[in-house]
Design brief:
The protein is α+β, with helices and mostly antiparallel strands and 387 residues long. 53% of the residues lie in helices and 15% in strands. The chain has 13 helices and seven strands. It has a six-stranded antiparallel barrel with strand order 2-3-6-5-4-7. A hairpin with a 3-residue loop joins β5 and β6. α3 runs parallel beside α5 and α7 runs parallel beside α9. The radius of gyration is 27 Å and the shape is elongated. The N terminus is likely disordered.
């Protein structure tokens, strides 16, 4: 009896916590479940369409169907509680009257943008697969939760302020408070990871915060913040590898995954291709020189191909970068050694010489060129007849 009374109190309290104009509905994930989800109505579906650009991928070709997600537009009265990366649930409207039908969830979408228009007010753009229900009138709803998004956003902004002023300890305190209010925010955990790194606390705390941001990366507030995170995460993983080497298998295997996703999302960013080149070079050097083994040879060929593509893309975007030519020299020196005595030996040697010249040309003096690289360049130049 006491337990039942407590449940009634909790439900009543959650309803009182809603804004007066919010509509509470109950929906079921399936007909087999008797436990309804409490949701808040956010708006109506006003448009469902496919993306304008269509590229036939392997799955689409095999199934002979268009496998792109649907682009869904919602009209909302108030964007409060809606954020990018959030999942919204679609409920079928009752055709007989204007109220909302409590019933099964007929679709889900992921929020891609929230914006305000002059004539139609607030709208939400999302993506989902709605081919079977696209002609039915639907209402969008969000889960009723107690996450304090607005307070978390404010605390994060305060942390940004102290971080910019160099008051890292206070920034960390504000970021931790923000994370306690919105535990799944990638923006907050990314900021907290950067602050730990700046504070000199070491890479353990940074690795933890960055890993949470990575798991929740679909929720980043904007593409610019997401790009900055990808670049910082790649920088961090490369540093982590230099510190711990291949001993940390999880971090080592994560590098190419992050690099691949970064180049797919941001194909016009120079640093994305630069770090893809470095990741490819590291994996190439760790794949072994056992060319007689088919698996080892295939792995080296794949990493070499990606390194060549990454180098070409990066060089097209920016030629005058010392670090790019340093990586190119390291890569071509490995390939030159690998193909000694073959028809490709001269090709890789000449490329090493070419990037060696560019390395010297764009050298800034901020760091020292290793003797290993310089000796490799000198040997290549000597054998090519330059000296």
């Amino acid at each position: 009896m006491v337990r039942l009374f407590f449940l009634y109190i909790c439900l009543f309290s959650s309803i009182l916590a809603q804004a007066p104009d919010e509509k509470l509905v109950f929906a079921f994930r399936s007909q087999e479940s008797l436990e309804p989800l409490r949701m808040i109505v956010v708006g109506d579906v006003v448009g469902v369409e496919k993306a304008s650009f269509f590229e036939v991928d392997k799955v689409s070709a095999e199934l002979a169907v268009d496998t792109r997600p649907d682009t869904v537009t919602l009209k909302v009265s108030d964007p409060k509680g809606i954020r990018v990366g959030q999942t919204l649930y679609l409920l079928e409207k009752n055709p007989d009257h204007k109220t909302f039908k409590d019933g099964n969830i007929v679709g889900m979408i992921t929020v891609k943008s929230v914006y305000q228009t002059t004539f139609f007010g607030w709208q939400v753009r999302g993506e989902g697969y709605l081919r079977l229900i696209e002609d039915r009138p639907m209402t969008a709803a969000r889960l009723l939760d107690t996450t304090k998004y607005e307070e978390a956003f404010l605390a994060k902004r305060q942390g940004d302020h102290y971080f910019a002023k160099g008051q890292i300890e206070e920034a960390i305190r504000r970021y931790k408070h923000a994370a306690s209010l919105d535990q799944g925010s990638p923006d907050i955990h990314y900021a907290l990871g950067k602050a730990h790194w700046k504070d000199g606390e070491g890479y353990v705390s940074t690795a933890f915060e960055y890993s949470i941001a990575w798991k929740n990366r679909s929720r980043f507030s904007n593409d610019q913040e997401k790009l900055l995170f990808y670049l910082d995460y790649l920088r961090f993983l490369l540093f982590y590898h230099k510190v711990e080497g291949k001993d940390n298998k999880n971090q080592f295997e994560l590098m190419p995954i992050v690099a691949k996703e970064a180049r797919e999302i941001f194909p016009k960013n120079y640093e994305v291709w630069l770090y893809n080149l470095e990741v490819s070079y590291i994996n190439l050097t760790h794949s072994g020189l056992a060319l007689q083994a088919a698996a080892g040879r295939k792995s080296r060929e794949d990493w070499s191909e990606l390194a060549e593509v990454s180098l070409k893309k990066a060089y097209t975007l920016r030629k005058a970068d010392y670090y790019l030519h340093k990586l190119a020299c390291l890569y071509y020196n490995v390939k030159w050694k690998e193909y000694r005595g073959s028809s490709k030996e001269i090709e890789y040697r000449d490329k090493l010489v070419e990037h060696g010249k560019l390395l010297r040309l764009y050298y800034t003096g901020d760091s020292q060129i290793s003797e290993y690289i310089l000796n490799a360049i000198r040997l290549a130049e000597k054998q090519s007849g330059l000296f």
